[in-house]
Fold these 2 entries.
Entry 1:
Amino acid sequence: AHLDSNEPLGSRVRNMMTSGKTDSWAKLPKVADSTLQNLASDYITINRISSNSQALSISVFLPPNYEPKPITDLKRISNNIIELDLSGIPIGEQEMDLVAQCKNLEWLELDKTPITDTEFNKLAGLTKLSMLKAYETGITDQSISILKDLKGLKSLYVWETQISDAGFYKLKESLPQLQLNHGIDQKLKASFIEKDSLLF
C-alpha cells in the first residue's frame, strides 16, 4: 500500500512498525468493544494497538484501595494482550497468574513492584516477550534461568534488583541479541557523585 504523504508521520511509523506484526495479530481472537468497556475503569486503560486490531495494550494505575480482581478479570482477554504495564502496582501471585496466561505478550512492565523470584517464575513460557522492565523488584540470580529461556527477549531493564554481575554475564551468554540495561555500577555511581560535588 502506498503511504499517503498527508498521513501524520507518527501513524506512518507505527504502521511500518506494526505491518510485520499484523499477520500474527490477525490470528488473535475477536474482542468486542463492549467487553473492553466492561473491563476498563478509571484505573485500567485498554486500547487497541491499531484501529480495528484485536491486539490490545493495557495500562494499570494504582487506585486508592487496591485489589487484584480488576487485573485478574482481564483473563477473559488474556490472549489479546500484547502490551501490559503494571509498573508500581503492588502485584503478587494472583496478578502474575494472569500475566502467565497472556501467551501473546510482547511488552511487559513489572518495574517498581514487590515481585520476587517466586512470582517471576510465572513468566516461563512467554516466548513472544521482547521487552521486559523488571527494575526495582526483588528478583535475584534465581530468575536468570527464566530469563535465559525467553528467547525472543530483546530489551531488559533490571537495575536495582538482586541479580549479580555473574548472573548478568550468564544471561548475555545465553541471549547475545539482548540489550541489557542494568544501570550503573554502584562504585562508579559513588565516584561520579564525588566528582560532581568537587565541582561545586
Entry 2:
Amino acid sequence: MTDFRDDFPILEKKVYGKRLVYLDNAATTQKPDCVIDTISDFYRTENSNIHRGVHYLSELSSEKYEQARKKVSDFIGARDPGEVTFTSGTTDSINQVALSLAPFLKGNEVLVSGMEHHSNIVPWQLAGAKVKAIQLDDDCNLLMDSIDITDKTKLVAISHASNVLGCVNKIKEITEIAKDYDVPVLVDAAQSIQHLSLDVKDIGCDFLAVSGHKMYAATGIGMLYTSDRFSDLIPARGGGGMIDKVSFEESTYLEPPLRYEAGTPHIAGAISVGAAIDYLQNIGMSNIKKHEHDVYSYAKDRLLEMDGVDVYGNTDEMCGSISFNLAGIHHYDVGLILDKMGVAVRTGHHCAQPLMEILGIGGTVRASFALYNTREDVDQLIEGIKKVEMMYN
C-alpha cells in the first residue's frame, strides 16, 4: 500500500532531531492537506452562518454543511441524512442522548461493557441511571453469556472498539440480543469509524456516536446517528435554529436533524468531516483496513516476542490501539523516554479506570495506529523500548 505520510504535513516535523513517529491516534488523528485546505478555504472564501440567511455566502455555507451531513449519512449507511446530527464530538453525542432519555433512564439500568471510556459511563450516571457492565474474560472478550437484560435495563451502550486495548466488540450480536428485549442500543464508534466500514442498518443500532477528529477531520465536531425510531426525542439543547414557534408559554421544535442543533454549529468542522470522508473513500476503507491490519499485527507480534513486555487484550478482531507495560518501569517514564526518541505514545489510564481495575494495573503505555503508520514506525517504537529497558537494567 502507498505510504500516505506525505499527505500529512505535520509528519514532516522533527522531534528532538528525530523522525516523528506519531502513535497517539486514538487520542486524535493528524490531518491531511485536503482537510486543512478545506478548513482554510471555508474561512477565506465562504464563511457565513447557515440556514438563516438569504444572501449568497449563507446559502453557499448552508449547502456545503448539508452536503457534509449527506456524506456522513452515506458513510455510515443511514437511511436518510436527517438521521445525522452534528455535535461537538462523541462525548457530546452521548451526553445529548443521556439528557434526552434522562426521564426514561432515571432509576433504571444502562448496560455497558467492562472496557468503556468514561464518556460512556459518566453521562448515564448523571442521567440518574445505574451502570452495569458486561464481564470480560482473561483475553478481554466480552462474556456474551453474562449479558443480563432485565426489566430495569433501558439502554445498552457499547463501544465498538476499545480505546485502550483495540478489542473489537461484537456489536451486531449484542444489538440482536437487546432487540429480543426491545431495549435500544447506542454504539460508541469513536475508535472504529476510521478503521472499519460501518453500516448502522446492518448493525441495527438506535444511536451511533463518532468524533470527526478521530477520522482525520477537525477537532470540536462530532456526529450522532439517531434512528427514526427515536426521531421525536426531546432536544437536549435549546436555542436558535431548532425551533418552529416560540412563545412565553411554550415552544415547538423543527423536525430532525435541526431540532437537535441549537445555536451556531461548528460549520467549518462539519465541512472538514466531508473532506475527510472523501479522502478515506478515495483510498477505500477495505484498503485502509488491510494496511492497518498489517502494521497492527506486526507491532503486536514484535511486542509479544519481547521479554519483560506485557501486552493486554487478545480478541478475535482488534484494531487501532495496543496497550502494554514494561516490567518494573512506570508507564509514564516509558512515555517520556520514547518521546525523546521521536515516538509519540499515550500513557495513563486512558479515561478507562474501571478497565484498569479489572486488569489490576494503574495504567499502560498505548500505541495507536492510523493509515499513515508503517512498519518502519513500529521498528522505531521497538528500538525505543529496547533503549528504555537498557536505561533501567
